[in-house]
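Minutes, project check-in
Item: structure for the 71-residue chain
Input as provided by the requester:
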Amino acid sequence: MLDTALAARVSPETLRKIETGRVATPAFPTIAAIADVLGLSLDAVWAEINGAERGVGPAGSTHRSPERLAS
């Protein structure tokens, strides 16, 4: 994590907060820098975010929340 944070020019604490959800809406340049360091396209990051919001995980697998199972 330290190498990723330093390469993206963000503090390790900021990266830790983003990973744990303590930063709900990180700045776009921060996300772009982290994605670049990790070799991810912003399209891939966006797709992952949208999939998580719809309950779809990596590789299209569907994750059902307890609320969805009840309906």
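Outcome recorded: Confidence is low (pLDDT under 50) at residues 61-71.
No further action items on this chain.
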